[in-house]
Amino acid sequence: xxxxxxxxxxxxxxxxxxxxxxxxxxxxxxxxxxxxxxxxxxxxxxxxxxxxxxxxxxxxxxxxxxxxxxxxxxxxxxxxxxxxxxxxxxxxxxxxxxxxxxxxxxxxxxxxxxxxxxxxxxxxxxxxxxxxxxxxxxxxxxxxxxxxxxxxxxxxxxxxxxxxxxxxxxxxxxxxxxxxxxxxxxxxxxxxxxxxxxxxxxxxxxxxxxxxxxxxxxxxxxxxxx
Length: 226
Ligand code: SAM
Description:
CATH class of the largest domain: Alpha Beta
Low-confidence stretches: none
Bound molecules: S-adenosylmethionine
Radius of gyration: 19 Å
CATH architecture of the largest domain: 3-Layer(aba) Sandwich
Order of helices and strands: EHEHEHEHEHEHEHEEHE
Number of strands: 10
Structural class: alpha/beta
Distance between the termini: 50 Å
Strand order of the largest sheet: 3-2-4-1-5
Number of helices: 8
């Protein structure tokens, strides 16, 4: 293999959701960058991948980038994975990839799972034009962003954590009460669940306490009706 970085998508829950090529690459590279070595070890063990794992997360990305570039320049191959899904999508790696490209080093993508695209593809809401906002700001700027999104004419895809899902539904009820919303929880996992309806209906339907898991929210474009 030519020296360079492989950006490898890994499962978002179900360990079977990984491509043959992804497994092959993870077995063949000289080392693997991952966010949390404990989480990625489970995946690697499942596929009998015995390889050097290097921790690489939002906090260490800046500090570790030059060392990784040196290793690749010296002829090594490397794979970047995240805790789940496609690296760099609400996950670290953009800075590293930018630096590699600036240094004319090879970057290859190995496609696979992504929670936003999966949720969008099964939401039944127009997919021809959409905006991915990832996580909304937690505090400062959150209300401003919601106000802006209330005028959005494309489908909106958001990520939200367990801690703020109820808050988000209440905010959607306030800022865009007439928009169809689909909430996907724990995609590809045992407790996968979907709720669909206007924000007011959903605030009543989602269990009001101990609602746990990972969430993707898909919101219909302004003015769209089923
Ligand atoms: N890089 C990942 C991807 O490709 O989807 C996203 C990483 S981001 C740090 C984590 C967020 O993605 C979660 O908080 C949740 O909003 C969403 N997510 C990841 N896996 C999910 C799943 N199985 N079901 C629902 N949402 C998920």
